[in-house]
What does this fold into?
Amino acid sequence: MSGSAQANEAGGAAPALVPLEIEVYAEEGQAIPHFMVDAAWPDMPAEMIIGQVPGLAVDKGDNVWLVHRPQSLTFSDVGLAQSPPQALCCRPGPDVMKFSGDGTYLGGWTGDPEWPETVHGIHVDDEQTVWIGGNGEGDHVVYNFTEDGDFIRQVGTHGETDGNASPDKLGNPADIWRGLGQVFIADGYINKRIAGFDEESLGFQGAWGAYGTVPSGGTRQGSFDQSQASTNTDGGADPDAKAFGDIVHCVVGTDDGYVYVCDRRNNRAQMFRVSDTGDLEFVRDIVIAPETGGTRTVTDIAFSPDGAFVYVADMMNSTIWVLDRSTHEPVARIGRIGRYPGEFTWLHSLDVDSEGNIYTSEVGTGRRVQKLVFTGMKPASE
It folds into this structure.
């Protein structure tokens, strides 16, 4: 147990629930989900620290997995890890870390020598295997590991990319989702597409651009760098664009046959239906704060356990949009920019457990994870 945190009976630190900002758009009387943030979560081991957290996932047992970037930590963060030690604390945690829902650290592992230069995205499938991508120089691979960190297989080849039409090479994959018979990849920082692969053989199944068309819009020239995530020199977001923008940031599926894609730089998500042949068929646009510039809005998507609500992470506005899934219209937004509990800096990823709690991660100078505890459905007027 870290520091002086008091443990509860189930393990982990005792919850420390505090309110967070909420702005309501729902009609008076409509019941919407409410949350408080657990300021004591997670119970990080003593002397351990995490850097930027570009990926977070909840597995079928409600354990929370994260992948972080130890290289984003500075010398003053990891003084204890220097030789000789330069400070009383700290050491970076392993690349992949696992926590129980109550915040107890369950262990972790560090990737092999071909580990991405800059990790980006993590998915834990129903077989408890772990999928990880990257958006650093040459990171054109999605890796699949056992939950203990043993390599299983991969899609793509490190250092090799070949455009939006390639059946076997990727271009800085941002996110992964396995389901409905396929492994879908948001291929994502160099390319501008969703690529699908058979979940058993990893044989290429297809590639889709915006509106389910042939991927278009070209590819990024050269390696991605951080400044390209926040520039407005592209003319700003275009929620009506015929092609995906230059960061296809997430891909998330549902059990009832739909796939949602984060077209981050165009401030929109696109919703698709998976056809009987495995193709993505366009259903609708979901536009989030279209006037937003900078790092833009739609970075990740998750769903309430009953499927009634969609949660959309918005990086630039540092908030989570709560959408009624029947209409995809906002009923509330929660959180605001800041560095205190329930506030966000470079909000990047989110996921939901079976009890309806939301977990979030932050990159840039945020470098943390948070747990938003579901406190029930309440009328919008309360």
